[in-house]
């Protein structure tokens, strides 16, 4: 097992900066650029601090990198990018791409993406990926030179096309079904979570109103005044505490979102397999029909109805020379077809083998990550309860002194 | 069976009421010194050709000598309570008569005869009678006694007797208004302070009432979203193997949180909301009492002014003035004493209601925290305990 890039190199997306520039259509636009810093790990063990290399990339370049990887490694479940636009927002969060909180969470998401790729046994060895991290200028041209765009267009078409496979691989069918379910359930969960966050925000914030009224009321009370005033302060603390709580929860939501998008990547691998299978079946079908044609011409019997057969019956048969020529062409095609079918079969088996290996790796990673995320969510909730207990203990103390 | 109970069966220690009702108000003189116990329960619907109305059962247990029996059970409708309140106001214009629940809530949420509305009203009526029973003066009021003890027909015939409220109005509305203005100028400092206090208190208590209702609404909305949130995790667990248990664990925690939220909401609606609402009504009552005191003083002041202009008939007026002066003094003293008593009760009620709110919240967070902790330990760390990697 080769060491993946992540072990040899420290990668961080350390900063985000607003930029303005002219785009491809020469229109002024504002965008965010992210600073990628890399540092070799080895030299650190010698007690020296290795120099940090850095370069700036914008989101569209990350997208380009990911497209390239998806097309070049169709059997790999390629890590997803953080969302392009803020989705599943609850009212306090802004859906604005320029909002600093959104930019910050995206920065973290992009770093996470790079780390995922760098720790993938296959993807980390890719030269384009390495250049993305280390070569500022000329990277885009380098990517385009690989010619992946051509493959990308046909892939996009294929992913969206509908076709029926006669002998689907059961494992892939099940996996595709699972990825659909995963997508559906996580997006439902995220939607409701956002609504719950909204409601919880409301509960906490309304308590803040107590603070002001208690303070005003305490002004006309002699004995109750102190208790009211200090209780009001605690209500303010309670109301303010929800901001940090929900911000932390947002990170949990991001963790789930990553797997929502991973489900798409998983689905893409299944679709690719379906496509290859369909391609194989079409090729086999084509070969069979050519063989049949050849046989019919050779023996002169027409077993199946064909327009050629009809026209030759109506307008007279071909000459023996014509027939010979046709048979020869067909035999060449059949030869080609058989070789192609063989290589397609091999390709298919290789694909299944390597795809399934990556899928197993992905499953383990997913189970580990989601379990951790769920634990951290429970821990967050416990911490929220502890804060609540503290505030209300203080408040109770004040109320009992009223 | 509404017949009078046996003398022997009475025990003064505990009235027949759910224990929660006992905690709703304090025993001013301590439970050992109380001699009148009242409960309001068992709402019943009555349908006649003309109208539909609700009656409530009022049970009274007492050791007082002036009561012929030690136990009474009667049925009363809201109208009867209104009658009692107006009689008490008539008899004691500067005493603080406790508030009655409103006639008809048009908030749109609660319709006239919904179970929720009837229950809220029943609790408020129960409170109303008990507050009167606790009041050192009002508890001995004759109409109060009749209210508690008379059968339905006896009560209606008693209601018809005696001068109506309207006939008691001596001065014209304009005369009252101008005499009140004069009274305000001569008003003792203490009552001006009370007025100022009540203006602010009234404002604040109204806002608090709104805030508390708003909190209840937000909690209810939170609860309804949470109810949907838990089951999604269970649904997800059906497509998973490895993480199915973890997901189910979270689902169970969310469900527990839901139940705990329900309890918290119930606490609000059972304790804080009725108390705040009662004091909203109290603030109106108190403003009214202060006005009446001003009116009584106004009567005196205008007579005094009238006398000042008529130097001749001093003797004729002096007896009248003397009576009015007594009336003013009685009214002021009654109000002062009742005000102090009211303030003490208010302080106690607020302290206990808000402490209760804090306790409910503490219970909520403790319960959820405990459940989460148990779930974490059980689901996630049991693997380590059983030696799985």
Automatic annotation (TrEMBL), chain A:
Keywords: Protein transport, Transport. The keyword Isomerase does not apply. It comes from the Eukaryota. GO terms for cellular component: early endosome membrane; plasma membrane; SNARE complex. Gene3D superfamilies: Arfaptin homology (AH) domain/BAR domain, Phox-like domain. GO terms for molecular function: phosphatidylinositol-3-phosphate binding. InterPro entries: AH/BAR_dom_sf, PX_dom, PX_dom_sf, PX_SNX4, SNX4, SNX4_BAR. Residues 12-139 form the PX domain. GO terms for biological process: positive regulation of autophagosome assembly; protein transport. Belongs to the sorting nexin family. This is SNX4 protein. It comes from Falcunculus frontatus. The gene is Snx4.
Automatic annotation (TrEMBL), chain B:
It comes from the Eukaryota. GO terms for cellular component: early endosome; phagophore assembly site. One of its GO terms (molecular function) is phosphatidylinositol binding. GO terms for biological process: autophagy of mitochondrion; endocytic recycling; piecemeal microautophagy of the nucleus; protein transport; reticulophagy. It holds the Pfam family PX. InterPro entries: AH/BAR_dom_sf, PX_dom, PX_dom_sf, PX_SNX7. Residues 34-155 form the PX domain. Keywords: Coiled coil, Protein transport, Transport. Residues 307-334 form a coiled coil. Belongs to the sorting nexin family. This is SNX7 protein. The gene is Snx7.
């Amino acid at each position: 097992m080769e060491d993946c890039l992540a072990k040899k190199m420290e990668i961080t997306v350390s900063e985000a900066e607003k930029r303005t520039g002219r785009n491809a259509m020469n229109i002024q636009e504002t965008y965010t650029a992210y600073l990628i810093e890399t540092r070799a790990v080895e030299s650190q063990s010698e007690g020296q601090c290795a120099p940090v290399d850095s370069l700036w990339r914008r989101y569209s370049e990350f997208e380009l990198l990911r497209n390239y990887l998806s097309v070049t490694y169709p059997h790999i479940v390629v890590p997803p990018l953080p969302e392009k636009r803020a989705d599943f927002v609850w009212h306090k969060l802004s859906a604005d791409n320029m909002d600093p909180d959104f930019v910050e969470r995206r920065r973290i998401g992009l770093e996470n993406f790079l780390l995922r790729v760098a720790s993938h046994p296959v993807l980390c060895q890719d030269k384009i990926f390495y250049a993305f991290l280390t070569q500022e200028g000329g990277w885009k041209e380098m990517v385009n030179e690989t010619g992946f765009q051509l493959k990308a267009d046909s892939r996009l078409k294929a992913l969206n096309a509908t076709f029926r496979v006669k002998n689907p691989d059961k494992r892939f069918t099940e996996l595709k079904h699972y990825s659909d379910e995963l997508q559906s359930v996580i997006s439902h969960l995220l939607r409701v979570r956002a609504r719950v966050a909204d409601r919880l925000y409301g509960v906490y914030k309304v308590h803040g109103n107590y603070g002001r009224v208690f303070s005003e009321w305490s002004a006309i009370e002699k004995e109750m005044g102190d208790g009211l005033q200090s209780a009001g302060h605690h209500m303010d603390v309670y109301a303010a505490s929800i901001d940090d709580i929900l911000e932390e929860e947002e990170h949990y939501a991001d963790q789930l979102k990553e797997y929502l998008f991973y489900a798409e990547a998983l689905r893409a691998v299944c679709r690719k397999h379906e496509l290859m299978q369909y391609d194989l079946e079409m090729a086999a079908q084509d070969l069979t029909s050519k063989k049949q044609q050849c046989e019919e011409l050779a023996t002169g019997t027409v077993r199946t109805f064909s327009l050629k057969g009809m026209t030759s019956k109506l307008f007279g048969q071909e000459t023996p020379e014509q027939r010979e020529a046709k048979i020869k062409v067909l035999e060449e095609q059949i030869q080609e077809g058989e070789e192609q079918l063989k290589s397609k079969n091999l390709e298919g088996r290789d694909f299944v083998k390597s795809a399934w290996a990556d899928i197993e790796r992905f499953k383990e990673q997913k189970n580990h990550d989601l379990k951790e995320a769920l634990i951290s969510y429970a821990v967050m909730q416990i911490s929220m309860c502890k804060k609540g207990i503290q505030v209300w203990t203080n408040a109770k103390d004040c109320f009992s002194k009223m | 069976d509404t017949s009078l109970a046996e003398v022997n069966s009475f025990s003064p220690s505990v009235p027949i009421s759910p224990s929660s009702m006992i905690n709703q108000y304090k025993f001013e003189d301590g439970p050992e010194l109380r001699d009148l116990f009242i409960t309001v329960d068992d709402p019943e619907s009555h349908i006649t050709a003309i109208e539909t109305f609700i009656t409530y059962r009022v049970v009274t247990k007492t050791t007082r000598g002036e009561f012929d029996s030690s136990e009474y059970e009667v049925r009363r409708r809201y109208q009867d309570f209104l009658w009692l309140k107006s009689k008490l106001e008539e008899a004691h214009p500067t005493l603080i008569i406790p508030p009655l629940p409103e006639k008809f809530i048009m908030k749109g949420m609660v319709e006239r005869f919904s179970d929720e509305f009837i229950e809220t009203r029943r609790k408020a009526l129960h409170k109303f009678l008990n507050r009167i029973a606790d009041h050192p003066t009002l508890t001995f009021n004759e109409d109060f006694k009749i209210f508690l003890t008379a059968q339905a027909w006896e009560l209606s015939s008693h209601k018809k007797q005696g001068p109506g409220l309207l006939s008691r109005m001596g001065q014209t509305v304009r005369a009252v208004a101008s005499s009140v203005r004069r009274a305000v100028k001569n008003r003792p400092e203490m009552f001006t302070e009370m007025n100022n206090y009540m203006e602010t208190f009234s404002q604040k208590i109204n806002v608090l009432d709104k805030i508390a209702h708003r909190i209840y609404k937000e909690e209810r909305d939170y609860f309804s979203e949470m109810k949907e949130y838990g089951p999604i995790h269970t649904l997800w667990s059906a497509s998973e193997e490895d993480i199915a248990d973890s997901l189910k664990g979270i689902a169970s925690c969310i469900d527990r949180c839901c139940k705990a939220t329900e309890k918290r909401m119930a606490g609000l609606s059972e304790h804080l909301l009725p108390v705040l609402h009662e004091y909203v009504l109290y603030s109106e009552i108190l403003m009214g009492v202060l006005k009446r005191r001003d009116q009584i003083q106004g009567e005196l002041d205008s007579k005094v002014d009238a006398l000042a202009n008529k130097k001749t008939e001093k003797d004729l007026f002096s007896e009248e003035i003397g009576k009015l002066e007594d009336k003013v003094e009685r009214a002021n003293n009654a109000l002062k004493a009742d005000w102090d008593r009211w303030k003490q009760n208010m302080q106690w009620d607020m302290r206990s209601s808000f402490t209760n709110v804090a306790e409910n919240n503490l219970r909520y967070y403790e319960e959820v925290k405990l459940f989460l902790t148990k779930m974490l330990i059980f689901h996630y760390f049991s693997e380590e305990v059983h030696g799985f990697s």
